[in-house]
Every structure is written in C-alpha cells, then in structure tokens.
Amino acid sequence: MDTLTDAGDYFEDTFKGLLWIEKRLSGASFEECEFIDCDFSDSQFHGCKFTQCEFVRCNLSLTDMANSQLYGLTFKDCKLVGVDWTKADWPQYYRDFELKFQRCLLNDASFYGLTLNELVMDECRVHDADFREGNFTDSQMTHCTFDRSLFMHTNLERVDFSNSTGCSIDVLANEIKGATFSSFEAVHLLESLGIVLVD
C-alpha cells in the first residue's frame, strides 16, 4: 500500500518505500502490518493503534506518537532519533508491551517514567537517552552503547546488559539487583561508590 488515511483500519498490510514525512495521521489502527524502507520522520501519529507490527529499515526520527497505543512492535535496523516515547498511551494494567529494537539508532530518546518490563534492545546505539524514573525489569539491553544516557531512580532489576558499554549507572540511586554486566563494564559501576581500583 502507498497511502494512509485518518481512522483507517489496516490488517496484515505491507507498506514498502512509503514516504510519509512531516505528515499527520489520526485514529488509524494497524494490526499485524509490516513497514519496509518507509520514511515517517517528523510525522505525527495521534491516537493511533499499532499491534503486532514490524518495522524494517524505517526512519521514524522525531516521530510524535501522542496518545497512540503500541503493543508487540519489532523494529529492525530502524532510525528512531529523538522520539519521546512518553507521549504514547501506555495502559497501567500492562507491564510488558513486547517492544523489540534490533540494530536500531535510538539516540536522544525519552523513556522517562515508563514501565516497560522485558523490553528488548539488541545491538542498538542508545546515546543521550533518558531512562530516569522508569521500570525496565527483566529487560534485555545487550550489545548496546549507552553513552551519556541517564539512569536515576530506575528499576533495572534482572536486566541483561551483557556486552553493552557506556552504562553510567549509580548503584546507590538505581535498583540493579540481579542485573548482568560484562566484567569490564562492571568496573565502571564502582566509580559511583568512590572506589579506586589498582592492578
């Protein structure tokens, strides 16, 4: 398909190479849809619903998801710079929204205060992102770079950070019980305790 309409109802549709830049869509519903090589940069999806959809090599940078519901989404090789995920509609009765990001660019994203248990981020670049006050229990954040990202009063219990770098996490200001870190990266956690290591 090559067009989108307000309040449209899309089921098992495939969108390839769709250019939807700086546009606005309201009240549309997408279920089990696939988006391939689409450009939605600077667009607004207001009050939309995305369920069990997959995005492959798409550009969603600066996309506004205000009041939209997101469930069971997979992003592969996508660019999602500057997305404020807090604007979406996250029902409190859910804790795991089954969101997966694989090899994505997530710089300058905001997850502030969100509860996204079992979130998956694999081989992603997540620089200058905001995870403060959030709950990401049992998430997988592996093979990622988190340079200058913010963690404060964040629940990171049992989060797998294996092979991830740049994790500047204060062990006294965050919940990290059961979290997994690579040995080299774990050394940086001690800096928040003022501990000096020598060979």
UniProtKB/TrEMBL annotation:
It holds the Pfam family Pentapeptide_4. PANTHER family: ANTIBIOTIC RESISTANCE PROTEIN MCBG, PENTAPEPTIDE REPEAT-CONTAINING PROTEIN. This is Pentapeptide repeat-containing protein. Signal peptide: none annotated. InterPro entries: 5peptide_repeat, PA_immunity-related. It comes from the Bacteria.
